[in-house]
Structures are given as C-alpha cells and as structure tokens.
Amino acid sequence: MSKIFIIGLPRTGTTSISVALLDMGLLVAHTAFTKKAFEVADAVSDAPCFSDYKQLDVLFPNAKFIYLNRDLKAWLPSITMLLEKMAPHLCLKTGHFNPVLKRSFQQTFPNIHPLNECELTACYTQHQQAVLEYFKDRDDFLSLDVSEQGALFTLKQFLGMPTDGDTNFAKLNVGRNVANWREYKHPNKVNANLAGAEHRKFFDYS
C-alpha cells in the first residue's frame, strides 16, 4: 500500500482517522519525528505532515494525502485550548517539545501570541487554501470532514479498502481531552521517535 499522510491541522479529527486506520490493520504514527517512524508507518498524521506535505510529496511520490476540514466555529475554541496548553513548550529555543514538532507548529501558527480568533482563522484559511491549490485536480488527494455521515465509507473507498462495517467515524479526542492517542492501546501504533540505523535523525529536506 502507498504511504498515507493526514495533513489536516490539529483538532480536525486526526486522532479519529488515525484510530480508524489502525482498526483497518495499518501501522499508524500520530506525529512522526524520525526517518524510521516515517519508513515503518503505513500512515502518518498531524505534525509535521500538515506543514511538510510538499516535501513528503517529493520523498514519497506514490503517497496518498488526506486533508481534514472542520467547521471553524467548532475548531477555533478547540485549537485555542490546545495551543494554550502547548505554548510554553513550543518556543524554539527553550521549549521541551521535539524540535520537529516545534518547527511544524511555528511554521503553521506564526505570530499568534496572544491567541485570538482573527489570527487563528487566518492560519486555518491560509493552510486550507495552500493545500487545495497544491493538490488541485490530483487523484491521490482527498478532502474529508470526519463528522459528516458516511465519511469513513468515503475514506475506505479512497484507500481501496473493504467498505463493510462502520461507515461513520467514532468521536474521539473531544472536549478538553488532548491525550487520547497516548491512551489508546493498539499493537499497530508506531512510536513517533522510533530509532533506526541513523538513530533518531529526521529528513534533510535541503
């Protein structure tokens, strides 16, 4: 199977689609910060996919890309809550998050401190427009809202997977819960920091 990259922004359903892909029997990384994690996983979601989709398109020319869209009225309070929790750890110099994650967020959400709906709306819109323009008229791209009826069926069709069973996504990682992926136990989960022959080295896009 081709690599699958989920390039929707955080809080658009990345956990829901990642769990669905696990249940389809795929190896899934929700965030991936090493070459090895990208090599091992069948599907990767969240950071850095939402910022690095152009580079990944070059590195994995047969990959499929899935953009997740969400109603802005629901996304804005959700992303605000997430970024408020993450903000102290996203500083490029002093934040303790993985450098790849920090870069990915800083590129996608620049100049948003203090947080406000106008700036966040601009970040969402700019990302969406850039993605849709880049993948225009391509058959290896799907735009999906995981809250819509039949969305899981649409995903299965796009991936060429059996379409029996559930046709809708389970609602996961809702409210103020932002740790659902860590809590979800599954043998097909791929560690974001998986080490390989090059230890924990990431791609050199240059």
Describe the structure.
With 206 residues, the chain is an alpha/beta fold. 40% of the residues lie in helices and 9% in strands. The chain contains eight helices and five strands, in the order βαβαβαβαααβαα. It has helices spanning 14-23, 35-40, 49-59, 72-86, 99-108, 117-134, 151-159, 180-183, and strands spanning 4-6, 28-30, 43-45, 64-68, 141-144. A five-stranded parallel sheet has the order 2-3-1-4-5, with helices on both faces. Helix 4 (72-86) crosses helix 6 (117-134). The longest helix is centred in the middle third of the chain and has 18 residues, at 117-134. The chain starts with a strand and ends in a 23-residue tail after the last helix.
Order of helices and strands: EHEHEHEHHHEHH
Bin the helical content.
40-55%
Output the number of helix runs.
Answer: 8
The portion of residues forming beta strands comes to 5-15%
**Mean pLDDT reading:** 93
Number of strands: 5
Low-confidence stretches: none
- What would you call the shape? globular
Radius of gyration: 16 Å
Which class do the helix and strand fractions yield?
alpha/beta
Read across the widest sheet, the strand sequence of neighbours is 2-3-1-4-5
- Could you describe the largest sheet, including whether it forms a barrel? 5 strands, parallel
- What is the end-to-end distance? 27 Å
Short précis:
The chain has 206 residues and is of the alpha/beta class. It has helices at residues 14-23, 35-40, 49-59, 72-86, 99-108, 117-134, 151-159, 180-183, and strands spanning 4-6, 28-30, 43-45, 64-68, 141-144. The protein has a five-stranded parallel sheet with strand order 2-3-1-4-5, sandwiched between helices.
